[in-house]
Write a structure and sequence with these properties.
- By secondary structure, the chain is mainly α.
- The protein has 2 domains: about 70 residues; about 45 residues, no CATH class.
- It has 6 helices and no strands.
- The longest helix is centred in the middle third of the chain and has 29 residues.
Amino acid sequence: MPSEFHAQAWFGLHTGREPIAGQPADGPQQSALVGADTTMGYVLAVVMALNTVIAAFYYLNVARAMWFDPAPDGDVTPVRVPAGLVAAIVISGAVTIILGFFPGLVTDISDFAPSLASLGN
């Protein structure tokens, strides 16, 4: 019988999660899938592990191409990046890393939902 963890794992396979942001969810999901002791749980855990390997191969190749391969046309002129874009990248990167290390900052919001919902009454 499918469980919530099976559904989360299946959804995670099809969303193309970014490796850093999706990483905190992988451990508990795989533990729950294996802990369910069902065939579907084991199959999904193996598929998740294979998906992680494929994603790592893809993203590491992108990083290699960006940082280690020479420019295809030989143009090494520095690109001017607007300050607003730099700020957006820094802020979104910091939020991604902070929430990656402290996912409870977002997931614990659901603890306050009942009390917030009662404020409207």
